[in-house]
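cache lookup: miss for this entity combination. No prior model stored, computing from scratch. Input as submitted by user K.M.:
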Amino acid sequence: MKLFKRHNNVLPGFGPTMGYTLLYLSLIVLIPLSALIFKTAGLSWHDFVAVVTAPRVLASYKVTFGAALAAAGINALFGVLVAWVLVRYPFPGKRLVDALVDLPFALPTAVAGITLATVYSANGWVGRYLEPHGIKVAFTPLGIIVAMTFIGLPFVVRTVQPVIEELDSEIEEAAACLGANRLQTFRRVLFPLLFPSVLTGFALAFARAVGEYGSIIFIAGNMPMVSEITPLIIITKLEQYDYQGATAVATVMLVASFVILLVINLLQKWSRRYAE
Amino acid sequence: MHPRKLVTIIAVLSLALATALPAFSAPGVTLQNVSYDPTRELYQDFNNAFARYWHKKSGQNVTVKQSHGGSGKQARSVIDGLDADVVTLALAYDIDAIQEKGLIKPGWQKRLPHNSSPYTSTIVFLVRKGNPKHIRDWSDLIKPGISVITPNPKTSGGARWNYLAAWGYALHQKGGNEAKAREFVTKLFKNVPVLDSGARGATNTFVQRGLGDVLLAWENEAFLAINELGPDKFDVVTPPESILAEPPVAVVDKVVDKHGTRKVAEEYLKYLYSAEGQRIAAKHYYRPIDKKVPTKLAKLRLYTIDQAFGGWQKAQRKHFADGGVFDQIYGAAK
């Protein structure tokens, strides 16, 4: 066991802290989650499959995971851009912009949802210019992507930012000296260095978007089979006092999130090795 | 200040305090009323009135705490352990769910007059000022080009009343039958561009986002919206007929027995039926049961859920359960 081999810790007290960690994780994470699985266990396997593969539920997975994928993709692209600008260029109000990036973390999601719906609906600030061109954002799947992009933005920026900070601009200069043009420098030199962190940020933004409820519900329109997200399906089942059905769908979400987080962890491990 | 004067002031103050104290230290009792969204203002008024009444009657001070939210969510909170002495919800179905968990004794709906619904309401139309699309009756809602705002019946108690009101209307028309009703409701939902998860969300969509020509709403919510947002923007249209919405109330037996609050909780609900309780309900645009209490609400033909659907349990199973008629309308049947 590699974990226990290192005895030369700076701070003593591995025992109590490890005990505390386990207790804490159990109370906050493990016990509620096992209660979830336990409740689902009331269903037979056949019923479980029937519940989690009902057409309406399947449609909601498609919406949820599809929109989350799109949103994470948008964030990966523009998040890198934002991080790059924030690290490399001095400009007035930089600190303010830097703080602004974290706002989606702090803002209650319901507030975000109501605000986004206001801005993007047909009579909103942005919506009124989009609607005449046939682009409907609020109350369509597009609205879901907008909300998910909003809440996922900080993840990419904050994972990529420190990596860009560590990049010496000398690397680019060296590449330029060796005759690489700008695109080549980016493609061959910078991108490989940034890639692992972008991927991590992407995965984090994706995981967050999949679980998002508060902000989406106000902008999605919630039409069955079209713009209904999986968390709403869970709420719908609870409204019918169908606890088992709700937990069954929740379990699918849980497993999906767990797989995503596992992938993130592997990516981080990989990127660390890559960086060394 | 002269010390003598100060002494006098202190003396007077302490005397005042001493006389006031018994009032404060008189045995007090707290009730928790778990209700749904649109009754917030109604119960703020009513709780004050009841506190006065109960103090006069028993010398006891009663504080009533309010909790509001979606009706189904509130019922689940009570099931999951929120200590509600009384529940005042949007549908009997939600109180039935609490009863099923053994918190309320069976037959609760017979314990108070009028199906345990001290006030009733109905579903009306909120339209833009001047009613530009000439919406007068349910049949106008299925016309092409009319955009109807209603919340999702799967997540909102109020929306279930909307849906059933439309169904009941179609059923009552000449030559009306189940198939016709289904066709009518299907057409109606084709005109619905957004399904908000709750009644207040739908009101927001209609009022703030400017979406839709008509909002299906509780009558009291419609008038509340007009009062809050200005009568210059919206009109209430009362259709010639609609469903009689009966939001029921019940004492949560397990909780009041634990708290020892049964007597005051029962009195609290009974007081809703008193002249003053009825007057307060009418003031908040609910329809009073007591015919002597004046109301400004328009007269219309009202059908009950028992008449048209055979009660909530049946209506819920047939229409809103997974794979039910509502799911079938959206092509999402199992």
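stored under new cache key. Chain A has a mean pLDDT of 87.
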